[in-house]
Amino acid sequence: MSTVTASLFEGVAETARASVVRIDSGHGTGAGTAWAPGLVITNRHVARGATAVVDGMAARVIAADERRDLALLSAPGVTAPPLPRREGALRTGELVLAVGHPWGLQGSVAAGIVAGEMDNGERRIVRADIRLAPGNSGGPLIDARGRLVGVNAMVAGGLGLAIPVAEVETFVNEALAEARATGAAAG
Amino acid sequence: MAELEATAAVAAFSDGLAAAVERAGKSIVLVDARRRFPATGIAWQPGGIIVTSDHVLEREDDIGIVLPSGDRVAATLVGREPGSDLAVLRIEGDLTPAEQAPAAKVGQVVLAVGRPEPSLMASFGVVSAVGGPWQTATGVQVDGFIRSDTTFYPGFSGGPLVDALGRVLGLNSSRLGRGSGLTIPANSVDRVVQALAQHGRVRRGYLGITTQPVTAAAASGLLVVGVEAGSPADQGGLLVGDIITGVGEAAVDSSTDLRRHLGPDAIGKAVTVRVTRGGEARALAVTIGERPQSR
Fold it and tell me: Whose C-alpha in A7, B36, B129, B272 is 20 to 30 A from the C-alpha of A31?
């Protein structure tokens, strides 16, 4: 086996790990994904209150959406670099990596493939054939080129379910527009 | 440098897997023949021949097929083989038959692909084991199996296990392997498809009895608890309460032992069935019949 094949996932995994944060909100540990400087995205079920601790620093929930299970946090102290975002359709069978803190194990990486996308009429979901666990919630699902594909949200029937990056983008844009309109500080 | 190469390699690997799913998908159809979620089928031969899992056919009429194009067509049942959980369907018009892969190897990268909905679904893994002849829980002899660590999600039964180039290694059944799921190798599927396409069934020997294993003071063997009227066993004089201890020279201790004597070659042959009846040993001449379909 060549060194290239032997270290196949390492480069991508390293990039992804750098962009993952740890979120403590008083009831367990979850993951978060650096979205933009000072902004972190996670699941609403991870950041349930008005505040949370991100990588040991105080952060504030500036928007939350129960239906999409998303929360946007203002975390000025966080320096984790945001990931580039995937544009264009996913292909069933392509490789994906998930990074998070399953069972509290920091920065764990899991590899799998896109099992298929699902549209239940209300929203789209990325289904991944990948082994996720509690603690992966809020962490990134990335493609083989290190681009953000979605935010891991839950496990159902053995499949990892992630909120597609386009859906996250819509949520963040709406949240920031709302924050500007009400004069709240987003930074 | 090595890092850049690895980054390119992982991207190429990923693209290759997605291409494999797309390629295989041209021969993968949705099979709608049960009340809950649909299952999957594989275009196997020219002439609209599709193979699927037997257990996903809850009905034999009104079988719907959703083609890779998304069009829905009707299929007719050609034959079914519950023992190895295979069934053959036919549709009007042509499909792209699946391309077969060379024999599976342990460690090989594979994908389980299904079409339980109009779009494709896939699961990734490696071949964990490749085995030779085995008997299913119902005692049917199957001439090989592939086990992988892919997940057969609901509706994946009847779909293919494919290699990294999208070629078919075998047909997935969540029913086989005592519920843990197995893949029937493509060449075994081939044999069953040939038989079903030719006779509409796979021929198997048949006695017409139900039994349970017993160990009694008088004898150990198979206690006959039911004899079908007019069956080969009935005509040969077997009675409820007999304990079957052997067939020909061979001892019989289990239903698996008995089924060894009921292969396709046994049909029409006269055999000596040795029984204990009321404590006395007897030998009965029985001509093995052909098992009626769907048994």
Answer: A7
